[in-house]
Amino acid sequence: MPCLSKEGSREEQDTEPSIRDANNGRGKNMKNQVKVWVSSEKNPGNSSWYKKPEPVGHKLDEKELQFAGLDDSNVTTIKVDPSKTYQEILGIGTSVEESTVYNLMRMSPEKRREVLVKLVDKEKGIGMSLLRLTIGTADFTGREFYTYDDMPPGQTDYELKHFSIQKDFDYHIIDIIKEIQEINPEIKFFASPWSPPGWMKEPNPKFSENNELNLRGGALKTECIPCYAKYLRKYVEEYEKLGIHIHALTLQNEPLLEINYPSCYVTPEQERLLAIALKKELKEAGLDTRIWVFDHNMSEAVEYVKPILSDPQGFEAVDGVAFHDYSGDPSAMTEVHELFPQKTVGLTERSWWGVWGADRICQYFRNWSISYNMWVTMLDSDIKPHQWVGTPDPTLLVQDAAPAVNGYYDNYWICPEYYLIGQFSKFVRPGAVRIDSNNGTSDTITNVAFKNPDNTIAVVVINQQDNEHKFKIQCMGKQINDTIPAKSVATYVWGI
Fold this sequence. Notes:
The protein has helices spanning 10-15, 98-105, 109-120, 166-170, 173-183, 225-241, 268-284, 301-309, 312-317, 331-339, 354-366, 416-425; strands at 33-40, 61-66, 76-88, 91-93, 130-135, 188-193, 201-202, 219-220, 246-250, 290-297, 320-324, 344-349, 369-373, 378-380, 397-399, 412-414, 433-437, 446-451, 456-463, 469-475, 478-484, 488-495. With 496 residues, it is α/β, with parallel strands linked by helices. The protein is globular and about 75 Å long. Strand 11, helix 10 (331-339) and strand 12 form a beta-alpha-beta unit.
C-alpha cells in the first residue's frame, strides 16, 4: 500500500492527481477556449477498494480544446441552450457523520487538513459545497447511540433541561466542522435526526435488545411533537452560537423505516404537525433555517408528501422535499415538482459508483434536484467503524487500518468516486442554474448542463460504453468536437 507521507512520496505522486484551479482563466478569458476534465471508473462499488488502491485511467485529467464552426457531421450531438433555464443549484457534497470524523481524528493534524482540503477546497480539491450533518447519532458510528437529551428508562424531560450537544464536542464533530469552515467559509450544512430522544417515542418490541434508550426503532408520540420542535430549534441555536449556520433541517431520516439502529417511524400527518411547530419555533427565534420534509425513498415520496403540502399550513411551513434513492425512480422528483413547483426537491442521501452512478446523478439534476449528497466519506480498510446492518460499499476515501505510525493513521487512498463526484462538485458551483440540453442514452452518451454564476457553462458528459465515443457539443453558434474515453465522465467548461 502506498505511504502518503507529509512530504509526498513517489507513491503519492503516482496516485494523486494535480488538480488545478478550475477558476483559473474563467469568465471572459475562456470565451475562446474550452477546458476539459476527465475521470474514469475502476471496479465500481467493489469491496476490493478496502484492501488497496489501484491504478485508475483518468483522475480529473485536464486538457484544452478550441471551438469549431457548426457542422452536420453524423456524430452524437449535444445541443445546449442557455436561454432555457430550470432550477438553481444549492450544492454538491457528502456527509460528516461520526464514522468519518472518528477516522479523521486518528490522523495527524497535517494529514487531516490534507484530506479536508481535497474535499472542500475549490482550488486544491473538488470543492464540495454542501455537507450533511447528523443531529445526534446515526448508524455510522462506533460509539454508543445518543441524542441530545437522553433520559433513563421511565423518565422524561419535556422542559429540555438536560439538552446538551456536549457529545458533539467530545467526539470532535464540532472540531471537524470548524476546520472545514476555515478551508471553505462558503460551505453550507444541512442536518438530519436519526431518532428523537427515546422518551418521545413509542417503543417497538421487535428492538427490545440493547435498546435501553429506545433509539432503535419505535414511533414518534404525537403528543411530543411540540417538545420535539423545541429540541430541533435548540440544536440550530446551539450550532449558530458556534458560528455554524444550519441551512436546512430534514425532520427525520427515513421516516418510514424502523430498523436496528437509531430510527423512528413518523407519519405524514406527524411530519406536517412537526413542520408547522418547528417553523413557528424557528421564526420566533429569528432563525432562517429551511425545513425539508420526507428524506426517504423516491418510491414512497408522492404519497407521503401530498397530505403535507396539500394542507395550507403544511405548505406554508415547508421549504422543500428531500429524497433518498434506494428504491424508486428519479422521475418522482419531477412529479413532486410539478405538483408543488414552489418547493425545492433535493437528493440528500445516496452513494453511487462508476459511470452508471454518474449518470444517476445527472438524472437527479434533470429531474429538478437542487443538490446531491453522498453518504459516508471515509471508513478504514477493516470497513470500520459503523453499526449499519449490512456491509458498506467503498467510501470516497479509505484509511489504512494497519498499525499506527507515531500514533497516527495517516496512510489513506482515494477511490475513483472521489474524482467522479468531483466532475460535478468542482465545476457546478452553488448558484448555478441548470440549462437545457438534449440527453442521450446509455448506448451513446448522457449529459447535464449548467450556467454558473461567473457566466461559464459547465456540461457533464457520461460515457457508459466499453469503447470511446466521438461527439460534439453545440451552443450559441459554436461547436466543441471531442472523443470521450470508455467508461469515463468528462466536464466541459467555457465562458459566454
